[in-house]
Amino acid sequence: MREVINLIILNLFILSLLNCNTLEPVEDTPGKRDYVWTVDTIETYFRRMWASSPTDIWAVNNGDWDKSISHFDGNSWTFYGVPGLLNLTTIYGFFRNNIFVGADNGSIWKFDGTSWKLFAELKKEGTDYFLFENIWGESPNDFFAVGSGPDDKGYFNSSIITHYTNSKWDMLNTDVLKGDVVRLYKNRPDNKIYFLLIEIGGAEYSDSTIIYEYTTEKYIKLYSSMEVQGLQADISLINNEVYFVLGSEIAKRVDNNFQTILKVDNSNFYQRIWGRNSKDIFLMMVDGIAHYNGSNIEYLFHYNLRTYIAGAVLFKDDVFFSIYESQTGLNLIYHGKLKE
To answer: What predicted TM-score, i.e. pTM, was given to this entire model?
Structure first.
């Protein structure tokens, strides 16, 4: 009798697995727009932000040392500096007690939930000085740090891409590249790595934005445009999928081709996006923040002055945007919370 019961349980288990494998993919849900907004004026400009929750938000800047690290606990912001930790340029974490920052001249520091400690001091042959623009990865033992150093003309066009995996650093050969690597992500649908590079032209020619695909130290140029509002390119990681901003178009990569999913017919679009899924995307505009819900684009609010969004962190019911007003010099945090 017991053998019969065990056989029935086994068959039910196998049937459940088969049913799970035949389930249709869950369709993306259109994002809501009924946010209640609050605005905080803060003491410094946030260069980069990362958060594990709405009550654990971190930000860094490369200005005043005593305000180089910032933390929000859900009620207020605190600011401080760490001895030896200078010129912070980027931050990224995996857990609230496993956070990394890029700092002066190729150094990376780690926060373990209690204190900050030096994690790595990286060097690149032929480059005396460089800074990281961004850190991103899939785990604390598999992540990238990207940026640039000065070229022979003093422009930060000496590209830097370094990969930490299996407890070792690999400084990739980027001699064929020219520009500042500002963002790098892996695209889960095709398992490929894409990055955005900004080539600085200086007084000779206009800056350019260039999107590359990377495979085993082979760099494939996919798209290039001037770094001018309305024309420039960018990439964003939304729900583990890379979205490409190609001027006024937002696209995905399908079968090695760009597939347009949205065309933004608004000259105020400033080529930056953040999102939760394909039907819940925030767009940076020169006069506010707009939102795409899978059907249409609407403004969530307008600014009184021309502003720039330095970064954003998104959660199920909360969104935070770090905003700088160049006319007033104010640094602002816009916090949107969905109505219950």
So the answer is: 0.89
